[in-house]
């Protein structure tokens, strides 16, 4: 990667880091990225509201290749003593999306200056953290006849600057599930006069170990109790309402849907037994991210050519990423660049994206473009 381009990308990352914005609120972030590309490249910019993309068009190109970066931040306080720390209280880039966006901008600089024999699309996407951005932006694939799409995430896997890849599912599917039960309160001395959801919710929780038993599922299936909110903090009142919040997760989407249906059926059955009304809500819905081997092999080939340490992931990450929405529309692959095994984990106070990964990502993706 050209040193001037690297320095510009690092400076951009620091600016993004200092001005983090939560999912679906990335107004400044999006505009700053657009302004950067307009100032430093001749690329076509297509503004789609909450997301945008830039395009390099080659003469007589027979292939459309795309690269995606997310740019939203997390509701976590910044407590690092760094020159570019977050200026927004309670919000910070503790997942490295500032680095992802800066790396994609750096790639745009390189392609704009050096050219390519393919049409190259640089997709900058909002709201990854809540699973909404890629679902909205997936229309980009068919609208532009994208033949293949790539992306990366930084993660504490393997040594620093290593390239980590896997065929098939690389990130689990997941969603937040709320089971709401409505009964009727009563005096605590006369619970029989009310309809208390506590026992029904307890029965649902008690059923979870059997539902996620690995002997009954092809792949990993998890159900995490996030919160139990029943009744009021009043010892004289028998509860009349309750919410059970779960995160359900699976290696395969069909098993995630089976888990969801089983939980709904159990909840409906328990509601009937205790005379309760039951309803369901879903949040932060992520598909499985399943790599195409043809695309993963391109990552492998370039990593070897560039002398990056290549590591084959033995299993998928339990965490989710909405990049899977793009892979439902076209072939592609998602890889991980190593932060170093002893580096601070993402989503923690101590974490900060490592600038050197920008160059790794750019060189890797330039190599894929040149294949």
Automatic annotation (TrEMBL):
Cross-referenced SUPFAM superfamilies: Bacterial exopeptidase dimerisation domain, Zn-dependent exopeptidases
Cofactor mode of binding and number, as noted: The Mn(2+) ion enhances activity.
Keywords, sorted A to Z: Manganese, Metal-binding
Gene Ontology MF term list: hydrolase activity; metal ion binding
Residues annotated as binding Mn(2+): 95, 97, 129, 153, 347
Cofactor section: Mn(2+)
Alphabetical list of InterPro entries matching this protein: Amidohydrolase, Bact_exopeptidase_dim_dom, Peptidase_M20, Peptidase_M20_dimer
Domain Peptidase M20 dimerisation, first and last residues per copy: 174-274
Protein name per the record: Amidohydrolase
Organism field: Paratissierella segnis
């Amino acid at each position: 990667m050209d040193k001037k381009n690297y320095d510009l990308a690092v400076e951009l990352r620091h600016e993004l880091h200092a001005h983090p914005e939560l999912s679906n609120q990335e107004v400044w972030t999006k505009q700053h990225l657009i302004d950067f590309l307009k100032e430093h490249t001749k690329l076509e910019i297509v503004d789609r509201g909450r997301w945008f993309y830039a395009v390099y068009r080659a003469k007589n190109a027979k292939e459309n290749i795309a690269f995606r970066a997310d740019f939203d931040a997390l509701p976590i306080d910044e407590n690092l003593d760094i020159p570019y720390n977050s200026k927004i209280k309670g919000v910070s880039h503790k997942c490295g999306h500032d680095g992802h966006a800066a790396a994609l901008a750096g790639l745009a600089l390189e392609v704009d200056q050096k050219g390519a024999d393919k049409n190259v699309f640089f997709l900058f996407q909002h709201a990854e953290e809540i699973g909404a951005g890629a679902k909205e932006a997936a229309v980009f694939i068919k609208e532009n006849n994208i033949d293949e799409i790539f992306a990366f995430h930084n993660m504490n896997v393997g040594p620093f600057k290593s390239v980590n890849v896997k065929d098939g599912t690389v990130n689990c599917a997941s969603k937040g599930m709320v089971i709401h039960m409505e009964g009727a309160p009563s005096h605590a001395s006369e619970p029989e006069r009310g309809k208390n959801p506590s026992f029904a919710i307890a029965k649902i929780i008690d059923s979870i170990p059997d539902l996620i038993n690995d002997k009954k599922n092809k792949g990993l299936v998890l159900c995490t109790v996030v919160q139990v909110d029943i009744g009021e903090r009043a010892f004289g009142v028998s509860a009349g309402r309750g919410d059970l919040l779960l995160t359900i997760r699976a290696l395969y989407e069909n098993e995630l849907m089976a888990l969801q249906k089983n939980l709904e059926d159990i909840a409906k059955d328990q509601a009937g037994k205790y005379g309760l009304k039951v309803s369901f809500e879903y949040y932060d819905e992520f598909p499985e991210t399943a790599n195409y081997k043809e695309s993963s092999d391109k990552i492998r080939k370039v990593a070897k050519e560039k002398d990056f340490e290549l590591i084959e992931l033995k299993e998928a990450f339990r965490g989710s990423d909405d990049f899977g929405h793009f892979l439902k529309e076209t072939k592609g692959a998602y890889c991980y660049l190593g932060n170093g095994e002893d580096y601070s984990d993402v989503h923690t106070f101590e974490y900060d994206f490592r600038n050197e990964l920008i160059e790794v990502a750019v060189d890797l993706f330039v190599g894929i473009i040149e294949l």
